[in-house]
Every structure is written in C-alpha cells, then in structure tokens.
Amino acid sequence: MNTPTNHQSFDESPLLPDQGCDLHEHLARKYTIADLWSAADVQSNCDGLTEEQAWEVLKEVQRRYDPSHGINWTVIEDVAASLFPQPDISEDDLDYTQDSHS
Hints:
Shape: elongated
Strand content: under 5%
Helix content: 25-40%
Number of strands: 0
Order of helices and strands: HHHH
Largest sheet: none
Radius of gyration: 21 Å
Low-confidence stretches: 1-13
Number of helices: 4
Mean pLDDT: 80
C-alpha cells in the first residue's frame, strides 16, 4: 500500500480527477478531503455582492488561508467587508414616509 504524502508531484499522483470523475471519490482514493465553497455560497451570506465580487472574496480567502482558523462564515464575511465595505446606514437615511402596503 502506498502511503500518501503531502509532497507528491502532480506527475506522480495528480489530485485533479479525470473528466466524469466524482471529485470527492477521487480525493478519498488519495486520502484527501476538500471543503468546497462557491461564489453562490458567498452571495447567500454577503448581501449585495455580484458573482464576480464573491469570486474575488473566495480568491482572497484562499490567499489569506490560515489552517488554525480554516474557512468559515466569519472569515468569509470579514474578507468581504474588507474588500467591499458596505456604506453605513444611519437613522437619517431611512425613509419612513413610504407606505409598505402599497
């Protein structure tokens, strides 16, 4: 039995599956796991981001990756806020004059 290592070259043991292969099954054969995040995931939790902005957030999350914290909603929200700050809404900016039942 081959013992997997973290230093195998792509030529020896590629982590990328062939077309039509289930990614998680392929990774399991390599004794590897992956947690996948999509732009849609980011958009579902970070209001107002475009798909392209959400992708920029994911790329920056990957760049800043810290294995002691991992990737989680707090990390994603913090990166999104640093890249695409939302304007503060004050009480004065709210319009209470519009009828919500119209």
